[in-house]
């Protein structure tokens, strides 16, 4: 029991500061002409500042982590190390332009969770190139 409490404290200490520190981009799906996802790779054709169209890819392992079955933004989070059945959907939030990443992610005790995160809240178009 004591070990569990100690571990939980360490997890909080490790993750809270990085979430506060991390500054992610957002909104790629509204400024990119086309996009698609396959596995952990997001591919898009986005408009640069000068107006040209640029193709780029982003490995979402660089952007998201699985913490106890929940996907969250974390630089180099490597979520796919503990998630499977990764799918991508274009969603329909109020702006009609949200992309969703869905996966089945494992908790430390082996329980699996069907979870999703709005990729466009954390991935942006940085001068034509996808970035998180
Ligand atoms: C960008 O991707 C599109 C669609 O896959 C393709 O038709 C086009 O030739 C690509 N453009 C460049 C500059 O690679
Ligand atoms: C996950 O993928 C595996 C292999 O394709 C499949 O057998 C399984 O039914 C999927 N699980 C869910 C919950 O979709």
Automatic annotation (TrEMBL):
Using the record, list the residue span of the signal peptide; answer none if the entry has no such feature. 1-22
Q: Which part of the chain is the Cyanovirin-N domain? A: 27-132
One matching Pfam family is: CVNH
Q: Which UniProt keywords are present, listed alphabetically?
A: Signal
This one is known as Cyanovirin-N
Q: Does the keyword Signal apply?
A: yes
Superkingdom in the source lineage:
Eukaryota
